[in-house]
Specification:
Elements (H helix, E strand, L loop, with lengths): L1 E2 L11 E3 L6 E4 L26 E3 L8 E4 L2 E6 L14 E2 L26 E6 L5 E2 L3 E6 L5 H15 L8 E5 L15 H11 L9 E4 L7 H4 L18 E4 L8 H19 L5 E4 L4 E6 L10 H14 L3 E4 L9 H6 L4 H20 L10 H5 L5 H8 L8 E5 L9 E5 L5 H11 L3 E6 L12 E5 L2 H6 L6 E2 L1 H4 L5 H16 L5 H4 L16
Parallel strand pairs: 10-11, 10-12, 12-13, 15-16, 15-19, 16-18, 17-18, 19-20, 20-21
Antiparallel strand pairs: 1-2, 2-3, 3-4, 5-6, 6-7, 8-9, 8-14
Helix pairs in contact: 1-4, 2-10, 5-13
The structure holds calcium ion (CA).
The site of calcium ion (CA) has 7 residues, from strand 15 and helix 10.
């Protein structure tokens, strides 16, 4: 990456070129730069270029490739003189690469030493996983019970939680699934296993509790078949969830339902309250990374810093998941080449092909991903967005692939195939077993989850300044030359250990929680 003037004051005209072969670069200055601006290298702007948008570093002929990240992000629809604003309408997007003849496991990760001695204070679970928070989760089998559960959770928080000071929170796992759905459709296993695996997230301490209506399609025994809940050592626990069914004969009146939920919750709280934080190696961290509200700086500052932290985590033996199919689809060759072995590469290709087909059924392709905000922030199309998104995965070898809703079975860098939608991706990473979440944003989003702490990383100084009580880390200082990618990567790594040990994030401070959104590719009825 070349920053055109690192030694000059931040107010000097500044562009950022990601690779020596690129014929475009982005304007770094807050507010953009006016026509006739002259850069220290002598290049003169022919017109105003907004912040994060691309300028032509040389004359680009009609039909010629427009190159950023050393990748063709499109072709010029007409000739573009040096110094022009290379805006979206001047770029014709290339077709997606076919999923054939891909390089398979050809690239080995840079040789690095293991990182040893880093620890955090976590909650050890009977199944070997480690929680970063101690939360009572109340799972629901169907949307019908949501209002009742919401009412009960409010009362549990007010009346019971203060009696159990070692429990952090109570969360109702509400969703729109459970009835009115084609539950035997082949793809219905995705929302069902997602909900099951979320209920077993490490932050819930293995205390599964379910509120059911009674007549719904997703019966509790279907959500938790025998053996799906690990039986604790030395515990008479049956391996079945604690269940409250609203249609049971015992319930006479609304308050009797609330009383049943509260009685059951109190037993669960008493168990959870016995837990204490203990020193755990950094290898027990399970970090899900994603981005949302991206801009052209996402791929320059925040995502590369996350990629640096990803490599540190992998060196420490931890697990990192990256996801968002449409945001890696155009870099599939980079991913298959970094696969640990041909099986991992084949799994990656299988997930991409499944998603291509899923989008095709809906009459769109990966280009449906970009938002008006992405474009306003300088990202012209999904190819450019993907190149900036994929760098969150760092440079480590990819050791495994997960299908949507599946639970992790190995450590290291994992590709967890999910939609890029922030809420759906976060929900699926929760199901996989994440105990910490890293979220980068350029446009700004107040995203948060109730079940795991979310560390938000701003891509620009301006966003970090305006949203100073919403953003946990400012990666914008990389663009202004005040910090390196490595500096911010280490800052994030240290913050992950602190937050895992109990330090509050801004989203936790304000209690900002987005809803769970189950990915249901199957029909509803
Ligand atoms: Ca996202």
């Amino acid at each position: 990456m070349t920053i055109s003037s690192t030694s000059l004051p931040v107010s000097s005209p500044l562009y950022i070129r990601m690779h020596g072969n690129d014929n475009v670069a982005i304007v770094a200055n807050d507010g953009g730069l006016p026509a006739a601006t002259v850069f220290p290298c002598g290049l003169k702007l022919l017109e105003h270029v907004p912040q994060g948008h691309k300028l032509a570093l040389q004359d680009i002929g009609e039909g010629a490739a427009i190159t950023r990240y050393n990748v063709t992000i499109g072709y010029a629809v007409r000739s573009i003189p040096q110094g022009s604003w290379v805006e979206e309408s001047l770029i014709r997007m290339p077709a997606a690469r076919e999923l054939v003849d891909l390089p398979i496991a050809t690239v080995s990760a840079p040789k690095t030493e293991p990182l040893e001695g880093y620890t955090f204070m976590g909650y050890k679970n009977a199944d070997g996983s480690v929680g970063t928070r101690n939360i009572l989760a109340i799972t629901t089998t169907v949307q019908c019970v949501s209002g009742v559960v919401e009412h009960a959770v409010k009362r549990i928080k007010e009346e019971l939680l203060p009696k159990y000071p070692h429990v952090d929170d109570v969360v109702g796992l509400e969703h729109t699934y459970g009835c009115g759905v084609a539950i035997d459709a082949p793809n219905a296993n995705i929302p069902i296993r997602t909900l099951r695996n979320i209920s077993l997230n490490p932050n819930f301490g293995g205390q599964a509790m379910v509120v059911s209506l009674g007549c719904e399609k997703l019966q509790p025994t279907r959500l938790f078949p025998k053996g799906s809940i690990p039986i604790k050592k030395g515990d008479e626990g049956s391996g079945e969830p604690a269940l409250v069914c609203l249609q049971d004969q015992v319930h006479v009146g609304f308050n009797s339902m609330i009383a049943s939920i509260m009685n059951t919750a109190e037993k669960q709280l008493a168990e959870l309250d016995k837990r204490r934080r203990e020193p755990c190696p950094a290898s027990e961290l399970v970090v899900g990374v994603q981005c949302g509200g991206s801009d052209a700086f996402s791929g320059v500052t925040a995502n590369p810093a996350v990629g640096y932290a990803t490599d540190l985590l992998v060196r420490a033996g931890a697990t990192v998941m990256f996801s968002e199919v449409t945001e890696v689809r155009d870099g599939i060759d980079q991913l298959t080449s970094r696969a640990a072995n041909p099986e991992v590469a084949a799994a990656m290709i299988r997930e991409m092909a499944w998603y291509d087909e899923y989008l095709k059924r809906g009459g769109v392709d990966r280009s449906a991903n970009t938002t008006p905000g992405n474009k306003k922030g300088g990202l012209s199309n999904i190819v450019e967005k993907a190149m900036g998104s994929i760098v969150k995965s760092g440079s480590s070898t990819i050791s495994g692939v997960l299908s949507p809703g599946d639970k992790l079975t190995k450590k290291g860098l994992i590709y967890a195939a999910t939609p890029a939608s922030d809420f759906v991706c976060g929900t699926l990473q929760l199901a996989a077993g994440m105990n910490l979440h890293v979220f980068t944003t350029g446009r700004g989003t107040p995203y948060g989850l109730a079940a795991v702490p979310v560390i938000k990383v701003a891509t620009r100084n301006d966003l970090a300044r305006r949203w100073n009580d919403l953003m946990d880390i400012n990666a914008g200082k990389i663009a202004s030359g005040e910090a390196t990618i490595a500096d911010v990567g280490w800052e994030l790594f240290q913050m992950l250990l602190d937050v895992a040990s109990g330090k509050e994030t801004w989203a936790e401070h304000w209690k900002l929680h987005n809803a769970l959104v189950l990915f249901n590719p199957a029909p509803i009825t």
